[in-house]
Amino acid sequence: MPPNCNCSHRFHDYKPARESFLRSSTLLREENDKMIDVDLSDYFFECGAKCSVQARSLTTREKEMLFPLFMGCRSPMGVAKLGNAPRVLTVRHSCIWKVRSLLFSHPNRTATLENVFYSISVTPQSSQMSVGTMSAMEVSELHEDEQHGNDALYPVAVLIDELRNEDVQLRLNSIRKLSTIALALGPERTRAELIPFLTDTIYDEDEVLLALGEQLGNFTHFVGGPKYVSCLLKPLESMAAVEETVVRDKAVESLQILAYKHSVQDLEEYFVPVVKRLAAGDWFTSRISASGLFSAAYPRVSPQIQAELRTLFRNLCKDDTPMVRRAAATRIGEFAVAVGVFDFKQDLMSAFVDLASDDHDSVRLLVVESCVSIAKLMLGDDCDTLKSVILKLAEDKSWRVRYMVADKFNMVQSAFDSEFGCTQLTAVFVGLLKDVEAEVRSAAAAKVREFCEYLPQNRREQIILHDILPCIKELVNDSNQHVKTALASVIMGIAPLVGNENTIAHLLPMYLTLLKDDTAEVRLNIISSLDKINEVIGVDQLTQSLLPAIVDLAEDVKWRVRLAIIEHMPLLASQLGQRFFDEKLLDYCVKWLTDHVYAIREAATNNLQKLVEKFGIDWAVQSVFPKVLTLASQSNYLQRLTCLFCINVTAKVCGPTVTSQHLLPTVFKLADDPVANVRFNVAKTLATIGNMFDQKAIQNEIKPVLTKLMDDSDLDVKYFANQARQALRLG
Hints:
This protein is mainly α.
């Protein structure tokens, strides 16, 4: 008996064999595919300020594996701590220790361990513990009680254990289910134990931290509501200072969410100090994160604190570290919206101008997007400073800055008045289209259509013809294929803006040049935009100018180009009419059915269905079927398969009469094909089109063919024939 212990103990001898301590339990992990055995014969119990359970036969590793089974301990996680003695586990009286059916609980609760039964009762007043044998009825009652009560602790115990596991994936899984742990603990224990544990525990793995940051942003409900949301700030503040960018960004995102959950008083008392600490942090990562929190905190705090926040942000704009200034340049636009025009001009405009003139181009390029946000905030003459900033950035010595201006040019246009857009911004855009760097020209070329659309209607045509088209003519023959590819993706959209005559006079020659370009992506982008000019130039001009080039592309060496042509066939068919289509394009539609690329054959098959829908059944019988059905006699089995695929899709349009007269005989013929792949596709075809016929036709014509296929030597043929019989309910 330990010193100073007044407890009385009664021990009844029990020496179980080396039973499986957790047989079939999910809580104790397997090692080398064997359950760990524990000898309970050397257990003894002590009562006092704490309850010590000593198992001399347990190894340290085995005891470590028992940690998650302790719930409700003093440790924030409810996990027993390992004592100094190598084989002693120490827990408090009030804890629950549940190992399969072993349970230490509050007074007069009973417990079992496998087939060895004993009871433990603890009376807090007398600190007495007794061990004795249980009856079978008591055991039954215990299991029923466990089933309805403490079994809920199993998954929670596992999750808590996994929070400390060495395996990153297990920790990650547990973090993702943090809400489950919080629900089990309740709001009070979550605030008092779980959150402090998460704050004090350092996870080195970025993936775990990222998941934790995401969870905490939506944890308000689990800590008791907005009244207690401030307890979540500390762990997120720690994560906002780590080195990994994605973790910091997620922490900032969650902090922004929590900022709006705070009351005004709590915001000033808890959230603003977090912003101040991060903004004044020694390590630059914390200052980077701080820049993203100002706009969330600013609107609801007092004017005095608002002034402090503006000063702090201005200091970040002048920080010695370029990375911090980059973050400030990124966030200054959204902060300006929160601050308002007057205070921004008073306290932050000079800092913004300084960022636009920063020594590092990585800072200057981020000013472009922020400038747009600020320009939308300003009105009238207030934009003069911003206009000069944009004009200066568009001529920056760094191509990366000019690229950013070109890439965001449509946003820049929308932020300023139309007069500035028609004059100075047009000159800026022309300069970007003529830039010496291909990357800048490419970015500007991709914005041509959007730039032209945003021009005021009364001056649009004039600016396009006199300023933009001369630049486009140069870009059509640009030495860089990326520039031409970007231009080809948007140039067709200019046609509706300039009308029929200007399109024919100025744009058509450029379209033809791009259609004949050596780069497949350029040709592909032009073809993909054909629908944009059909209504502008008319059928006659389309057939005279573009169709010859389109026909040439029908046999392009790049299969993606051929695929794009196929996809636009229905559109061309509707524009050209049946007669012209039969003369110029029908043969290509049939030829694509024998292409060596499966994607082309598949697209050609679907194209055929659309053409039949457009031109009608009579056209299909007269013009299409005679050519398509000849594929059934080709030596290449792939072409015979394509014939079946065509029958599948066209039969849906043609109906049972035409299908029975013109298509079914070919299907029946292919049922005797020497290639098993063709034969089982016959069965699949009959399953697809068979239901359009009446029962008499199915019994007299289709059933005999399927019966023959059922007796085929090939297993796949038999299988699909049987599937077809079931689909047609032939039994």
